[in-house]
Write the structure tokens for this entry.
Amino acid sequence: MVDISANLSGIHFDSCIMNASGPLDTTLDELVDIAISAAGGVVMKSCTIEAREGNPSPRYMDIEWGSINSMGLPNLGYKYYNEIVPKLKSYGKPLIASIAGVASEEYKKIVEAFNSSNVDILEINLSCPNVVGKPQIGYDFEMSEEIMNVVGDVSEKPWGVKLPPYFDFIHFEEMATILNNTKISFIVSINSIGNALFIDWNSEKVVIKPKGGFGGLGGKYIKPTALANVRKFHELLNKKIKIVGVGGIYTGIDAFEFILSGATLLQLGTSFSQEGPPIFERISKELCQIMGKKGYTTLDDFRGKLKVIE
Ligand SMILES: Cc1cc2nc3c(=O)[nH]c(=O)nc-3n(C[C@H](O)[C@H](O)[C@H](O)COP(=O)(O)O)c2cc1C
């Protein structure tokens, strides 16, 4: 019997595969669809202090090997997500709240609000715009550290950070040093690859409206970068910090590769947006088949055991 269950911060997930924050998880109806699917857990849309309409449309486009988007964090505000926690928890799955902000006080206020709910885990989204003239928070190491210290001081729930992709070993090392010195229990890696440009050569036009067509890239384009981030952080982080892998997971093979690189849980963004809730059962089955063929019965049998060429 093949078992694809996983444990994060003492919370049991029947399946290691769930949705990523963003696509199809903004309203209660959408979240219930995830809760009644084969997803191992439910992740809510990143929420901010006030509800946001987000950027003008078109702001998401399916493209050849994935997606490009500049949504601008449309969400119903943290109070809405806090209020629907009891309803979502009634489906019996682990529930993860995703928190976004532009300053540490905003993160603090939302974390404090979720403390008094029975949400299981908090995912702190650091891929948010900071002040003008500075990069997004995840690329501003000082600001990232400040937010993690504030969250560590107030959170009564297990929490982790959702990170943007890094590309340079020195940046992995710098971020890993900060992470190893916080009360964090996991990272989610990676968020979209920022500021990509997709062009429709026929109309000679960009495909999304905000920011002159620049947007975050998801899907098959980003799997190698996501795997590299999972692998590098697996090498650099204290073993008690778990890794949630996300980026271009469409098949059981993709899922297998992420676990092999060191991931504990997996999230689906673009592929879930394209295929809808049945994707969780499909990928779970495919992963079980691969494990069965290889003679693995649990994820621990191969987690992190990627081989290198000597
Ligand atoms: C339409 C859309 C909205 C997203 N919104 C969020 C969000 O609110 N919070 C967040 O942490 N990530 C957000 N993301 C990023 C995804 O969670 C994920 O990290 C990224 O798309 C890479 O995974 P993928 O290749 O499976 O799409 C969004 C992605 C998409 C496509």
